[in-house]
Structure to design on (228 residues):
């Protein structure tokens, strides 16, 4: 079974519109990380959430962690072409290790004019 | 802004050959990692390294794989006898503390193609 599920798999949004990506874990979350990846390139760190209820924002991107639901959401306000790419959530779900992140399959975001 | 650098960006090798992928982590980081991503699949953990020894490794990281920090700046991944299924993008990452306290910063990856 999938330990970390992202939804949707892909989405197309018109420039200026908002979008939300969800990441749900089947196991307890010890930390949740959001990364952005352009096709064939490295992972760019966006945000790290550690505590239930935590919410962080950077520019037009906001991420929240719902510890009870074992879920995180990434919200982009007024999307721009620069927001296009693949968004990955990574989670620390192991009780006895660190650095061993499980990643979701990614959400491909396309921003149209 | 400091970044993780990886070389080469692309590596093509024949099956059975040895390859060494190189990484220069962020200078004040203490924890180092290798991940890989097979085309169209998820990013998956290979190994974590701290204090000059492996902290944890996945099932993928078998005896064909090894890691080394030969000096104070480089971190390498060696695959002794490459197989076709080793073809993937290999990412090096580093963090200042364990991942629960500080984020992993990834390099741009080395695309390994085994023919």
């Amino acid at each position: 079974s999938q330990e970390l599920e992202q939804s949707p798999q892909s989405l197309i949004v018109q420039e200026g519109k908002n979008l939300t990506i969800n990441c749900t874990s089947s196991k307890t979350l010890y930390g949740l990380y959001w990364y952005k990846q352009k096709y064939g390139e490295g992972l760019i760190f966006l945000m790290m959430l550690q505590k239930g209820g935590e919410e962080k924002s950077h520019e037009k991107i906001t991420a929240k962690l719902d510890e009870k639901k074992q879920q995180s959401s990434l919200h982009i306000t007024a999307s721009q072409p620069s927001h296009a790419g693949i968004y990955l959530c990574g989670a620390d779900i192991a009780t006895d290790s660190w650095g061993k992140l499980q990643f979701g399959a990614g959400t491909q975001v396309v921003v149209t004019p | 802004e400091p970044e993780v650098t990886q070389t080469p960006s692309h590596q093509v090798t024949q099956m059975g050959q040895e390859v060494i992928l190189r990484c220069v982590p962020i200078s004040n980081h203490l924890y180092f990692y290798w991940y890989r991503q097979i085309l169209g699949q998820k990013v998956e953990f290979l190994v974590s390294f701290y204090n000059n020894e492996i902290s944890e490794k996945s099932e993928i990281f078998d005896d064909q794989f090894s890691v080394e920090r030969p000096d104070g700046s480089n971190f390498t991944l060696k695959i002794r006898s490459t197989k076709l299924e080793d073809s993937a993008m290999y990412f090096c990452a580093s963090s200042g503390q364990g991942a629960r306290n500080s984020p992993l910063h990834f390099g741009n990856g080395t695309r390994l193609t085994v023919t």
Observations:
- Residues 5-10+17-107 of chain B form a domain with the Immunoglobulin-like fold (CATH 2.60.40.10).
